Amino acid sequence: MQVSIIIVNYNTAGLCIQCIGSVKKLITGLEYEIIVVDNASAGDSCLQITDAFPEVKLLRNQENLGFGRANNLGIEQAAGEYLFLLNSDTWLLNNAPAIFYHFMELPQNKQVGCCGGALFKPGGEGQAAYGNFPSLLEAFSYLGFYRLYKSYFRQHISPGVVNTSPADRPVDYISGADMFIRRQALTETGTFDPDFFLYFEETELSFRFKKKRWLSFIVPEAKIVHLEGASQQQTGTAFNPVKETLFMRSRKHFFVKCYGRVSATVMKILYGTSYCLSGILGRDKNWWQKLKILSKT
């Protein structure tokens, strides 16, 4: 088996079916399987998927295990030499799996552990496809200093970068929406850290890739639509304390694990200061709620 495509589903049966349909329509020239890991979706979500695609291997969890742990279960059951982790709210615009596979098989790319493609919103606008590792420089920049070096910040510090170049190139980490991973790299580094329920799991895994001298590459020839941006527009920008808490917990865990507790403490001070400044300047009406959540994480 060349490629195992793993899709985590949580109450997104319609989107998942659309995603699988795009794979079945566009993929050619590869021996592959599709594994759907369902995170205890409500209703008949699983039945809808198996009715539409009986050949798909479906793994059902009794509870929502989060992104990383669910993918780990799919990886355990996968037979592929490569693992293509694909979000349920995506669809392919071209034969991305074959593009990734042939890129990874090039002799000069044997040290590439992970790659991903260019991501787009449904309307065609570019979406963040890769990012830079979280850092104290990023936290410092959010005090307002990023305005002094906006272009540099967007490309070399920002955690989310929209691809603007057609060139294949190394990056810190690939968006979790479309990670094409060499199994050998996972064997050496391990799979997703189960302590990340949501957010930063792909970032931390990529950090381990780098420590083991595995590279992550953006391959813009592969093109994929990701609905995340559209769904945020539909639901508005209302402050969500649950998601904010998960985000801050995962960010702290990343800093503690990758940089140490001193760096994590400095990070919290910098972000706490930036929240206060945003409140004083009237830029963020939720600054006090964020500060309270930060103090508890």
Automatic annotation (TrEMBL):
InterPro entries: Glyco_trans_2-like, Nucleotide-diphossugar_trans. Residues 4-112 form the Glycosyltransferase 2-like domain. GO terms for molecular function: transferase activity. CDD domains: GT_2_like_c. The keyword NADP does not apply. Keywords: Transferase. The keyword Transport does not apply. This is Glycosyltransferase. It comes from Hufsiella ginkgonis.
